[in-house]
Amino acid sequence: MALPNVVVLPGFEGSNLDGKLPLLPPIRYWVTFPPLLGARFGFLELKQDGLTPAFNFAGTITPAGIVPFVYDGLIRFLQQQWNVIPMAYDFRKSIVVTGREVWTKIHEMIPGQDYYVVAHSLGGLVARFLWREEVAAGLQSQFKRLVTLGTPHWGTYNAVKAFNRQSESYRLLVIGTLGSAMPLLERAVDALSGRPFAFLDRVLGSWPAIYEQFPNPQNPFVTGDIPRSILFTPSLWEPINVGVTAPRLTSGRATVALLNDPSTFPPAEKIVCFSGRGIATPSLFNRGQSITSRNAFFHTDGDGTVARVDASLRGPSVDVWTDHIDLVRNPLVLGNLTRLLLNGLPPPPAGEEHPGQFTIPGPAGPAGELSTFPPEFFSTIDLMGGSPRASAGDEPRPAYCP
What we know:
By secondary structure, this protein is an alpha/beta fold. It is built from eleven helices and 13 strands.
């Protein structure tokens, strides 16, 4: 009997990118090992169309597999019960474009077949546009269910931090560019102008997908976060970052508006959202601070990258006490993936209007007079050949969205 299909969509920067020039073997632009060091990062800059390399000598840049040291464990685990289709994609491009490209690839690989989707981080936004393409083609019945892991359905301030040089990933990129193949002359000009890494701003500023992950002002779970509505204002960025452009901000705002459109919302029974929690998560404006502030810019509830209030789209969702990357290898997540993909979450309690939220507590998780779901909902698993990593005390508990 054939195994059911599951498409795995990685997160932002979770796909390898190779450049290909005529008569030469492919060149790995992203990501090299050790991570970042030696990466030809400068070649990843895009022209204004958001599709074409800014440097002609970069060649044709294409996805070349999912980054293994992040996703191999998830893929191997799913392969025990599924026909796994790892779907690398160009994480720089607009998620609207990527959703269409992924849709085309899926129907070329498994034409006419049903499939499920597990998506991490940005991959969940891509999956929502994949759903939109299925509806437009009248093939939505083949899209069985989507499980998102730490997806910024309502955006993330980590995208903002990439542009004001506060994110840890930005600092790693600065280190990585020491081995970059960017032209030395350009770096010398940047240094003389007092902006030694301005070319990093230009590269990141050319990627549409970062703008499309800005915090969404229409998040129904957030009130009073006025700066969400001004992040797409060019004058806000002019004194801060030479790479952020008005056309990119405009197109980013348009895509965020599409993410508010019901056409990108799979029905509640077709989606389960995991959110990490228990780790300080970027929130630059939570105390009325400026975009350049370096103090107290964290939510207390999130996975370090996506705040909990931004990770739940609609319908049931599951909170796990873990960080953003660990969501793809956390035993409490993996042990329930197949069950959730096939069956979704239990229906809401009788008489409840809100679909509810479910929390898998960790050692420091919440206590309280909360009823638990039946033990059979939560499976015990053994990933490392030792004793089960999950116990009865770790059963999911219902909580409620803010």
